[in-house]
Amino acid sequence: MKSFEARFGIPAEHRLVLIRSRIRGGSARGEFWEHEEFDARDMLVARYESFTEVDPATGITSSGWYRYDGDGFLIDRHDRIPERLGDLLA
User: Fold this and answer.
1) Rounded CA gap, 65 and 87, in Å?
2) Hey, how many other C-beta atoms are within 10 angstroms of the C-beta on 16?
3) Which of 28, 46, 81, 88 could form a disulfide with 37 if both were Cys (CB 3.0 to 4.6 A apart)?
4) Which CATH number does 4-83 carry?
Protein backbone atom coordinates (compact mmCIF):
# COMPACT_ATOMS: atom_id res chain seq x y z
CA MET A 1 0.00 0.00 0.00
CA LYS A 2 1.27 3.49 -0.78
CA SER A 3 2.30 5.67 2.14
CA PHE A 4 0.27 8.75 2.95
CA GLU A 5 3.27 10.88 1.94
CA ALA A 6 3.32 9.27 -1.51
CA ARG A 7 -0.46 9.39 -1.89
CA PHE A 8 -0.63 13.10 -0.99
CA GLY A 9 2.55 14.04 -2.92
CA ILE A 10 4.39 15.39 0.14
CA PRO A 11 7.85 16.83 -0.73
CA ALA A 12 10.81 15.08 0.95
CA GLU A 13 11.71 18.21 2.92
CA HIS A 14 8.19 18.41 4.43
CA ARG A 15 6.85 16.47 7.40
CA LEU A 16 3.44 14.77 7.63
CA VAL A 17 1.97 14.30 11.11
CA LEU A 18 -0.94 11.98 11.93
CA ILE A 19 -3.39 13.95 14.06
CA ARG A 20 -6.20 11.43 14.40
CA SER A 21 -7.43 8.11 13.09
CA ARG A 22 -10.59 6.20 13.79
CA ILE A 23 -12.36 3.05 12.71
CA ARG A 24 -16.10 2.72 12.25
CA GLY A 25 -17.94 -0.60 12.25
CA GLY A 26 -21.46 -1.33 11.16
CA SER A 27 -23.05 -1.91 7.78
CA ALA A 28 -20.22 -0.07 5.99
CA ARG A 29 -16.89 -0.38 7.77
CA GLY A 30 -14.54 2.53 7.47
CA GLU A 31 -11.23 3.97 8.54
CA PHE A 32 -10.60 7.71 8.66
CA TRP A 33 -7.39 9.76 9.09
CA GLU A 34 -6.46 13.39 9.64
CA HIS A 35 -2.94 14.66 8.92
CA GLU A 36 -1.10 17.98 8.98
CA GLU A 37 1.77 18.87 6.63
CA PHE A 38 4.62 21.12 7.78
CA ASP A 39 7.32 22.66 5.60
CA ALA A 40 11.07 22.70 6.33
CA ARG A 41 10.59 25.81 8.54
CA ASP A 42 7.92 23.95 10.56
CA MET A 43 5.09 26.08 9.19
CA LEU A 44 1.70 24.43 8.66
CA VAL A 45 1.06 24.29 4.91
CA ALA A 46 -1.87 21.86 4.61
CA ARG A 47 -4.33 19.63 6.40
CA TYR A 48 -5.63 16.33 5.02
CA GLU A 49 -8.69 14.17 5.63
CA SER A 50 -8.71 10.69 4.10
CA PHE A 51 -10.93 7.64 4.30
CA THR A 52 -11.48 4.08 3.16
CA GLU A 53 -14.87 2.37 3.47
CA VAL A 54 -15.76 -1.25 2.71
CA ASP A 55 -19.20 -2.76 2.26
CA PRO A 56 -18.78 -6.17 3.94
CA ALA A 57 -21.66 -7.67 1.96
CA THR A 58 -20.13 -6.96 -1.44
CA GLY A 59 -16.45 -6.22 -0.73
CA ILE A 60 -16.78 -2.98 -2.70
CA THR A 61 -14.66 -0.16 -1.35
CA SER A 62 -14.58 3.58 -1.69
CA SER A 63 -11.77 5.87 -0.68
CA GLY A 64 -10.65 9.43 -1.03
CA TRP A 65 -8.80 12.35 0.46
CA TYR A 66 -9.16 16.07 0.76
CA ARG A 67 -6.42 18.71 1.07
CA TYR A 68 -7.05 22.02 2.85
CA ASP A 69 -4.69 24.98 2.98
CA GLY A 70 -3.42 26.34 6.30
CA ASP A 71 -6.55 28.51 6.61
CA GLY A 72 -8.91 25.56 6.15
CA PHE A 73 -10.00 26.14 2.54
CA LEU A 74 -10.43 23.06 0.34
CA ILE A 75 -7.72 23.11 -2.36
CA ASP A 76 -7.69 19.53 -3.67
CA ARG A 77 -10.03 16.55 -3.69
CA HIS A 78 -9.48 12.94 -4.73
CA ASP A 79 -12.40 10.51 -4.60
CA ARG A 80 -11.95 6.97 -5.77
CA ILE A 81 -14.45 4.17 -5.91
CA PRO A 82 -12.59 1.00 -6.92
CA GLU A 83 -14.48 -2.18 -7.63
CA ARG A 84 -12.67 -4.38 -5.12
CA LEU A 85 -10.43 -4.00 -2.08
CA GLY A 86 -7.39 -5.14 -4.07
CA ASP A 87 -7.80 -2.12 -6.37
CA LEU A 88 -7.38 0.20 -3.40
CA LEU A 89 -4.02 -1.34 -2.49
CA ALA A 90 -2.59 -0.91 -5.99
Assistant:
1) 16
2) 15
3) 46
4) 3.10.450
